[in-house]
Specification:
This protein is mainly alpha-helical. The protein has nine helices and three strands; from the N terminus they run H-E-H-H-E-E-H-H-H-H-H-H.
C-alpha cells in the first residue's frame, strides 16, 4: 500500500473516531478541542487533525472559537427542535417513496432491522443500559431500512447526516421513552409491511415530536 493510501486510511479512521465520540457524548458539548491533547489521544498529527476538524466544522458538529481553536457544538432546546423538524421533513418525504418502491428484499431488511432494535429495547425495558450505543445504532438501522428504497442517494445522505445530530441529542438526554417508543417501532413495522405510508407518516411525526417533548420535560437540555 502506498504511503498516501496509508495516510488517507489513518486520517479517515481518526475522523470516524472523533465524529463518533462527539455524537455519543465522549467529547461533551462545549468542550474545548485542544490540538495537542487530541493529537496524543487519537495518535494523529496536528496537521491531520486540523483537516479533520474542518470537516466536522462544515458538518456542524464543532464550532470555531476565533483564534482559540475549536469546541464541540453546544446543545440547546432551540437547536434540538430545529434538528427534529429537519429529520421529520426528510424522513417523512423518503418514507412514502420507499413504501411505494419497496420489494420483498426491502421487507426483509426492515424486519431484520426491527428484530435487532426490539431485542435491545427489551433489555432497556428490563433496566439494562449497558448497550446504549448499540441500541441507538439499531435505531438508526431500522429507520434507515424503512426509507432505504426511496430512490435518492442524496436524500439518504442528508437523512443520515441529520439523524446523527438528532442521535447526539438523544444520547445527551438519555432519551428512551420506554414501552411507548417500542410500541411505535412495532407499529411502524406493521405499517411498512402493509405499505400504509399515511399511517407510517403520522406515527413517525408523533414518534419524533414525543421524543423531543420528553427530553425537554426532563430538563436534560438547556433552554
Amino acid at each position: 500500500m502506498a504511503q498516501t493510501d496509508i495516510a488517507e486510511t489513518v486520517g479517515e479512521r481518526t475522523y470516524r473516531r472523533i465524529r463518533s465520540d462527539i455524537i455519543f457524548g465522549r467529547l461533551a458539548p462545549g468542550q474545548r478541542l485542544r490540538l495537542e491533547r487530541l493529537s496524543t489521544q487519537y495518535e494523529t498529527s496536528i496537521a491531520t487533525l486540523r483537516e479533520l476538524l474542518n470537516r466536522l466544522l462544515v458538518e456542524g458538529l464543532i464550532v470555531a472559537e476565533g483564534q482559540r481553536g475549536f469546541e464541540v457544538t453546544p446543545v440547546s432546546a432551540d437547536q434540538w427542535n430545529e434538528i427534529a423538524q429537519m429529520r421529520e421533513l426528510l424522513e417523512c418525504h423518503a418514507l412514502r417513496q420507499s413504501f411505494e418502491n419497496g420489494d420483498v428484499e426491502w421487507e426483509g431488511r426492515v424486519v431484520a432491522a426491527h428484530h435487532k432494535l426490539a431485542t435491545l429495547e427489551r433489555k432497556l425495558l428490563a433496566g439494562d443500559r449497558s448497550e446504549t450505543e448499540t441500541w441507538k445504532r439499531y435505531d438508526w438501522e431500522f429507520h434507515h431500512a424503512l426509507i432505504s428504497c426511496c430512490g435518492s442517494r442524496a436524500l439518504l445522505d442528508a437523512h443520515s447526516a441529520i439523524f446523527d445530530k438528532y442521535l447526539r441529542y438523544q444520547i445527551i438526554a438519555v432519551v428512551f421513552r420506554g414501552e411507548a417508543a417500542a410500541r411505535e417501532h412495532r407499529e411502524l413495522l406493521e405499517a411498512a409491511l402493509k405499505r400504509d405510508w399515511q399511517s407510517a407518516n403520522a406515527l413517525l411525526v408523533s414518534h419524533i415530536r414525543d421524543c423531543v417533548s420528553h427530553s425537554l420535560k426532563t430538563g436534560a437540555l438547556a433552554s
